[in-house]
Amino acid sequence: MTRLGLREEKRFCRILFVDNGIGYSDEMLRQLNGRKSRQPVQNIRGLGIVSRIVQAHGGQTVFGNGAQGGSFCEMRFRKRSKKVSYRDNTSLQHYTID
After folding, report:
1. CA distances from 24 to 2, 12, 73 (A)
2. What is the dihedral sign for C-alpha 18, 5, 47, 12?
3. 86-93 long-range contacts, Cβ below 8 Å, gap at least 24?
């Protein structure tokens, strides 16, 4: 099972993906979280691409294992506030990410 969570904080928006699978190996976590590793792990290429896309938009990623198993990927973006007005004179607080 995979769950998706969205959390808005004062200055950040967080997107969290959590699953109940087998989790990441220590070597995978070293590579995914940007640390030097002893050997390349091939089956995480897609997650590395996700991380680079998030970074290109000014965000950060954190990968980890859950306390009771499974794994997670958290994406964190700084938000900017922008007031948007519409033709009917209503307005909404609209957030964009850097």
Report:
1. 15, 26, 11
2. negative
3. none
Choose among 10, 19, 11: nearest CA to 64.
19
Rounded Cα–Cα distance for residues 68 and 28 (Å): 18
Separation in Å, CA 50 to CA 3, 5, 21, 87: 17, 17, 19, 37
pLDDT digits (tens, 9 = 90+) for 33-49: 877 656 666 667 788 88
> Where do the domains of the chain lie?
2-97
> Which fold would CATH assign to domain 2-97?
Heat Shock Protein 90 (3.30.565)
H or E element in which residue 53 lies:
helix 45-56
pTM of the model: 0.71
H/E stretch holding 62 = strand 60-65
